[in-house]
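Subject: complex prediction, re-run

Hi both,

The earlier run crashed halfway through, so I resubmitted it with identical inputs.
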Amino acid sequence: METFKVIRIKGTDREIIEDLVVEEVPLTLNIGDKELVTLLCMPSDLEDLVAGFLFTSGLIKKIQDIKKIVINRKQWVARIDLATADIEMVFKRLYTSGCGRGTLFYNAADIINRIKITSDFKIEPVKINALMLDFQKKSEIYLKTGGVHSAALADTSGILIFAEDIGRHNAIDKVIGHGLKRDISFENKIMITSGRVSSEVLLKTQKCKIPVIISRSAPTNQAIKHASDAGITLVGFARGSRLNIYSAEERIS
Amino acid sequence: METFKVIRIKGTDREIIEDLVVEEVPLTLNIGDKELVTLLCMPSDLEDLVAGFLFTSGLIKKIQDIKKIVINRKQWVARIDLATADIEMVFKRLYTSGCGRGTLFYNAADIINRIKITSDFKIEPVKINALMLDFQKKSEIYLKTGGVHSAALADTSGILIFAEDIGRHNAIDKVIGHGLKRDISFENKIMITSGRVSSEVLLKTQKCKIPVIISRSAPTNQAIKHASDAGITLVGFARGSRLNIYSAEERIS
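This time it finished cleanly. Structure:
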């Protein structure tokens, strides 16, 4: 976080205050010497972000495919050494059908769509309420700056991994990257997100075979359709004692 | 909007309701026969979105560079015919230093950064309060689905252009695309956004020489720095009779 001098106006009052603002950096991912992508992100948990991004984008199959990640925090470059010799193949996966926002995930979508979630994991609504309360309490930077999204991996006993970022996709990638690093089984876990659930968000969690995704916000129609097809439980507007179930309701008992 | 059957839980009550959900489509932009990018977006104002995206990404210099945009709403493809013969150059602009989220704008950033905003446009806080109230009233889909961002172009007399999308960048691109089409001068206007102001958002408005950007939400540190350097007035947390001024305060009189 960085402090800025801000003029705060309320009605006709005008005062100069010091305010905390969330940090943003452009992190460029290089595989070997080749530039892959630049992520605009908050400069925390950057190794987790890189690992999660590579995995959810389908560029690596498992965490062991990464030999080393070195983050240069002066130039904001992540240098990635992969275990595979076939780096050209990784780039081909990225570039084949155009590039930029969205495409990445739609390239991977054909494969991901075949993943059916059959986990018999179950959770009670009252436990979801408790998890969401805990989730909000953990959102420290949000409370101070109002500028970030949060994501968390949880089970019925509580939150296991928590991350924040200026982008809702990045926060989810950080959580997934951390989970991969710790070799956590995703198949009996819940992904919690502060942000809206679009098809991209859903594909990321589907890739990890996470059976339940819970959001404080709204889903899109495509996210609901993907979730129904894949057997993923999608919960939205989880606030206070309320929640909406959009698909695979049998897991909310 | 699409209607879905939803299980709504409140405490121990469980009921099945019909709920409206925002639509998401993957719109692939083709220049001639060549695929450029896929945008995940709401299927409204798609021509404006395409024009705005091409402009704010630095792929076209003016609206006249576009000869034709044809939207195929079955396959969700936008076929773009450019006036320039040098389509390779357009792709080169996109691909030179990697591709994907963020990079696009950082490629363009060097050039955009040289744009200094010297407009002597001024607006009173009380007028900003009124604009924000009007802005919220216009956010119909948000009120129904809770799932979208809004953006608007305004002057001191009121809102001129308004657009919604599942992505805050898309909503801004739609407004800018519409403004370009109508040949509106941006230099004495305000951009209003429901979303957070990151450096990407700021670069988009800077490209149009819009002197004031106002958000209901928070800015990032990079957005504040860019705004200060470029002489753009950045206002955040504009809610009710409150607002925070982060840069170029002389325009808020």
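The longest helix of chain A spans residues 125-138.

- K.
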